[in-house]
Amino acid sequence: MAHEVIMPKWGLTMKEGKVVRWLKSEGDSVEAGEPLFEVETDKITNSVEAPASGILSQIVVPEGDVAPVQAVLGIIAAPGETPESVAGGAASSGEAPAAEKVTAEAAPAADATSPTQDGDFVRAMPAARKLARELGVDLAAVTGTGPGGSIVMKDVQASADAEFAGVNASPKAIEFARKKGIDLHQVSGTGEGGKITKADILRAMNPAAEQVPAAAQPVARDTIIPMEGVRQLIADNMQASLQNAAQLTVFVEVDATEMVQLRATLKERNKRNPDYRISYNDIICYATCRALKRHPIMNSTLQEDGIHLHDSVNLGIAVSIPNGLIVPNVKNANTYGLEELKTEVRDVAGRARGGGLSMDEIAGGTFTISNVSMLGVDGFTPILNPPETGILGVGRVVEKPAVKDGEICIRQMMTLSLTFNHMTTDGAPAMAFLRELGDMLENPGLMIL
Amino acid sequence: MSEKTYLQALNEALRQEMERDENVFILGEDVGQFGGCFGVTQGLFEQFGEDRVMDTPITESAIVGAATGAAASGLRPVAELMFVDFIGVSMDQLFNQAAKMRFMFGGKTTVPMTLRMPQGAGIGAAAQHSQCLESWFMNIPGLKVAIPSSPYDAKGLLISAIRDDNPVVFLEHKLLYGASGEVPDESYTIEIGKADIKREGGDVTIVATAQMVYAALEAAEKLKADGIEAEVVDPRCLLPLDKDTILESVKKTHALVVAHEAVQFAGPGAEIAAMVAEEALDYLDAPVKRVGAPFCPVPFSPPLEQFYIPDADNIIEAVKSLR
Q1: Which of A182, A240, A419, B221 makes a 20 to 30 Å CA pair with A403?
Q2: Is this complex scored with an ipTM above 0.90?
Q3: Which residue from A minimizes the CA distance to B320?
Q4: Does A200 qualify as catalytic in the annotation?
Q5: Averaged over A181-203, what is the pLDDT?
């Protein structure tokens, strides 16, 4: 029997993927489970394993083409089967534009509720059909053992179990992977004896790839938001952060009057450009990069082989999104001037909200800034973004009575909160960093040193 | 609590309700001094006299009509037809009068009558005295239909039927009169429209009524040897039908067989199968199977009559066809 090779669906928001590379050529023999092709999505690039053993008789979607999820990408024929018998008109349609062909073949398979498969009705009991939908099992590939060869629940279950045969994962993780349509062969386990846990799957999924439906179940009058998707991911990460680091937060109140003046000056210089915008956050990001270069221990990550001091500052920016929080980072942020850095920060933050971040932009940060000034808050205790050593919390700029040169006057004041990992460094270096950053913001001229 | 027959349970229910409420009276053919064709009213004439245990002429339309009128005027008649097969001549009194009055008079009157009717094959009484007609009554809004299988259910349901303010068609299978079981001596009621699980099991639901409950229990014991645990659900009443209990069971077992002695075509099983298909289709892991009598009059020839009546083997065959 011929097997269709389809575009996998990794996560709920994945609509299409690009076939980056075929690892086999037409006519090659393939073994079930060996890597067959590579797919790139807007989140991730990964290889996909052959669903069955046989001969790769036809590549429907060539390298470089984009296809919707569930679309047929190729055909694996059993040895001895001729390509003509596999897909109607497959051999002669080589001239046809691939995109058209994909659309035509993908249509029936994309509709999960459609009872047809290649035009043939698959006989299955309603409960088996429902179970297949829940477990993501393709009924066409299931052998029925019920009355008259009809597919019954135990056939579907057996087929689903076979898919996970040899996978070292907890039953909960398998259940979860089924629901999310995740291929567990692509997930590395961190549990006991390398066992894959639910947390591993969540880590493997892009946090932005989930849109949690706000389905409220009326149980005992409480509205229940299920712990899944981004919510669960954040919960796991936050808990892991607190469990795996000795976190200490220190505060400093900064007289930001000069920083406010600097921003006003820059705006005045650019007043002919109506699109020109610069924020306190941009100035703080810039100052932070300078301060980090002077205190390398704060631009470090704690890894298995020790504390890594990083040459470049990959500056993470915490961005609030409708259903959670995401921290993209600007690579080599220390190499940019203020204007360039401003553009880079806006770019990643904008895409964090609108979608389109690459996996690379979420990983590899060395220090994070979490700005809560727009919420009208002063100090707080940010939670580290592991394995980073520091995270800076930025409070609002607010007019307050202060003492300047022995006189009480009104100044623009701002609170900075620095959480650091006491496993990596100690209070004095962290506080020295925070003081230096505060000095720069109180007196921006210090940044040029 | 003591061991009683189905017939004794019914007799006890009638006696206790007549002692409790002087508005309760009995009418029917030979229900008085003779004690009823099958003996259900034995001893009641002696205890309550001819005013409350009334022999009628052989005219079913008069029996049902008189009961309807008496009920509408405030009494609680328990009418008996000798065989359900005779309901035909009194159908207008039942479905156009008794079943309609409460609705058409805007609730100003109620019709608290009970109509007891033996039914079923198995005693060589031929085509006009052996039918199971429960599905006729299931199609008439305004009626309630009780069809108890055990002595315990028979007593509790008959007392509930007598106390109910609506006309209740009370169907007694002739072959069950001798069935025995534990029955409390005191008066008690069973909610009309509440099914009973006669046997629990996780592999297939068998919904069965009247003497088919016993066939289903026998089938379940034999199926157990093959590793199949059947759940036997006895609706006890067909109108109103306890859908929840049936659906709950099907959701557990994912398979349904409905067994009744009535003719299979358009029998009560048709309604139950359709209801499950409508409300729990995607819980079904096999087609719904019905076990009922073939579509023909009940044969007089004893071997043919035995062939006609569904039995445990038919139910076993139906269950196995699902697997």
Answers
A1: A419
A2: no
A3: A147
A4: no
A5: 77
